[in-house]
Amino acid sequence: MARDADFYEVLGVSRDATAAEIKRAYRTGAMRHHPDKNPGDKEAEHKFKELTEAYEILSDDQKRAHYDRFGRAGLGANGAGAGGFAGTGFSDIFEDIFGDFFGGGGRRRARAPQRGADLRLDLEITFEQAATGAEISVDVPRMETCGECSGRRSRGNAPLQNCPTCGGSGQVRFQQGFFSMARTCTACNGEGQIVTDPCPNCHGTGRVRHTRQISVKVPAGVETGTRLRLSGEGEGGVHGGGRGDLYVVIIVQEHPIFARSNDDILCEVPISIAQAALGADIQVPTLKGNEPLTIPAGTQTDAIFRLRGKGVPNVHGHGVGDELVRVIVETPTKLTDRQRELLEEFAKLSGEETHPRGQGFFRKVKELFDEATGR
Fold it and tell me: Residue 165: is its pLDDT beyond 70?
């Protein structure tokens, strides 16, 4: 590094940068210019050395304080300079930063317990089951801890052997310039141990695929897209890790009569012209059977009646919705001669009093037409 180069400029940080910002800047730059990523590139190797020297000084509070106050002169014999990194503790820093990139810097990897994967199951249920709740049995294929070896992978739970390739460290070391690097051992996948006599049931993996029947309690009021979490019903863990979770995603089938709007149920009911004109008492379907409904005389099509408490329970326990009954006045399509005769007589006798909406509508149309034509 040039003797007048500023360490902060080399790392691209301000003079009041935090330790985390300095570490992040060094990691970014060192990853970009590392000799492993730029073989034969002298400029990249030089830049990597500059970054490393700057980081060694600025990551040490005492050295940084001396540097901020006196510049390079304040570093004395403790500066990185050409003396390299011996005795400075920098190897620990390097391993901390590049441990995940270069395989942990030579430290032995413990076989840490790993939690099993979460699973998702799409469950299709009926409209009625969504409204009232249900308990449904489902088959879930999943990886489970081998019962024969208890997940230890070897026959008869025999102890595992140290990997001959890495000597049990889980890593293979190599020299890169003045650095000693380490990569994950491919022979043992970084575990440091190998199975010499694998369990015949799981073939040395520690887990087997098994289909298990699970009971899913569907609460009343669920909708399509509702997600139920069954803790510990996912895949089994590795090396003694806990189970994952099972997420059940609800899909509600369409109903031939009912529709749903939040916690309310919608239902269309056809009525005759006579029932609409004269009024009637009819039976309408609900989730719990037929309910009586009084249709007042003069009811128009699309009129909506509310049956309170006949909807869907709120899934969070906030009451029950209503059923909204929309009546459709049905026009007869096949008339007998007598029916036609009576309707024709009715039409002759009809006036504004019997069809107020229609008469009012056509009167407004005429008024608009007269105004537009100046009549």
Answer: yes
CATH code for position 294: 2.60.260.20
d(CA 322, CA 306): 7
Is 288 a member of any domain? yes
359 lies in the same domain as 273: no
Q: How far apart are the first and last CA of the chain?
A: 98
In this prediction, residues 3-9 reach a mean pLDDT of 77
Rounded to 10 degrees, what is the CA torsion of 32, 37, 43, 49?
70
**What is the structure's pLDDT at 320?**
93
* 269 and 367 fall within a common domain: no
Across the chain, mean pLDDT equals 81
Beta partners for residue 329, in sequence order: 271
Indicate left, alpha or beta for 239 from its phi (over 0: left) and psi (-120 to 50: alpha): left
**What mean pLDDT do residues 104-113 have?**
52
* Residue 144 domain boundaries: 111-154+202-254
